[in-house]
Write a structure and sequence with these properties.
It is built from eleven helices and nine strands. It is an alpha+beta fold. It folds into two domains: 182 residues, Jelly Rolls, CATH 2.60.120; 106 residues, Orthogonal Bundle (Arc Repressor Mutant, subunit A). Strands 1, 2, 3, 4, 5, 6, 7, 8 and 9 form a nine-stranded antiparallel sheet that branches. Strand 1 and strand 2 form a beta hairpin.
């Protein structure tokens, strides 16, 4: 007989419920009211009742039955069902076999507009996904189905995070709750649905990566082919991206701009000799920096320093 993976959750059955869990997801606040493993002894009956919140019922082991409003259904291992707010239901374990149930009770409240606007980090993609999920939860059929997308293991993951208290425990539990909601919805919507995803403008993205690499390594030897290799594209492709995204500048012109900006900062912020500045910012010597600087700014580095000296 295989071991029951959720057995460990009996050690501290109220471990998750002791936590005051209220998480934000998109435009919603999800308040966790109950989050536990419970057992129905053989023949155990829970008479008709209802809740003011959503209740997810997962059956990790055993069998029994449920009546949702007035429709009876058989339950077996691997199934789950959802009772939304005010849904009348009756539960009964098999007369000869106990039934385990993983329960998650959540109150899902739409956040007020002021709270949403105050959350500068809210992601529009997350907002859309959360809204889609919650709307579907409210419309799920009142009948059990198989947990084909394996939401149940997230109960155990949340419990283990709580028991072990490792770094990131709150984020882990939040992700577990969201996954339970999402995977429950997916189990009822078997038809493939092409979800929209945020796609990058790859030219702008690669330009930004190239610029960051150049800025980080501007004091050393920079070669176009080396930067292209880091981005896994050809030198020709990188040069074209730099021209298009960088106001027509070539690779060498961008490198020069980065180095000169750094030189200007050092001239203003330090008293370091110009020869030393040249060597620290990737120029071969002070004379070469003098030539490049004068060509760009129509003045010498020394004059630039005097004109921009901080009082």
């Amino acid at each position: 007989m295989s071991s029951f993976p959720y057995e460990v959750m009996r050690d501290r059955q109220d471990a998750l419920e002791r936590l005051d869990l209220s998480i934000t997801w998109g435009n919603y606040e999800i308040r966790v009211l109950r989050f536990h493993l419970t057992s129905f002894a053989p023949g155990k009956i829970v008479s008709f009742h209802k809740h003011a919140e959503f209740e997810f019922h997962f059956i990790p082991r055993g069998k029994g039955s449920v009546i949702l409003v007035d429709e009876p259904y058989t339950l077996r291992e691997g199934m789950f069902y959802l009772t939304g707010p005010d849904v009348l239901h009756y539960q009964e374990a098999d007369s000869r076999e106990s039934m385990e149930e993983l329960c998650l009770h959540v109150d899902i409240v739409e956040r007020d507009e002021e709270s949403v606007l105050a959350d500068a980090l809210i992601n529009p993609w997350e907002v859309d996904e959360a809204r889609d999920c919650v709307e579907k939860l409210r419309q799920l059929p009142l009948k059990p189905t198989m947990d084909i997308y394996r939401a149940m293991p997230y109960f155990l993951e949340a419990y283990q995070a709580t028991a072990q208290r490792y770094n990131g425990v709150y984020t882990t539990i939040k992700q577990c709750i969201v996954q339970i909601l999402l995977r429950a919805v997916r189990a009822y919507y078997s038809e493939p649905n092409e979800a929209e995803l945020p796609f990058r403008d790859m030219k702008a993205y690669r330009y930004q990566l190239a610029l960051e690499y150049i800025q980080t390594n501007s004091t050393g030897q920079l070669v176009l082919s080396d930067v292209a290799d880091k981005l896994h594209i050809s030198s020709r492709q990188l040069q074209r991206i730099l021209k298009e995204q960088g106001d027509g500048r070539s690779f060498s012109e961008i490198v020069e701009d980065v180095r000169l900006n750094a030189v200007c900062r050092r001239l203003v912020e330090t008293t370091m000799p110009i020869e030393d500045i040249a060597l620290k910012e990737g120029f071969s010597n002070g004379s070469y920096l003098h030539t490049v600087f004068r060509k760009r700014y129509a003045m010498t580095p020394s004059l630039y320093r005097r004109m921009n000296a901080r009082g």
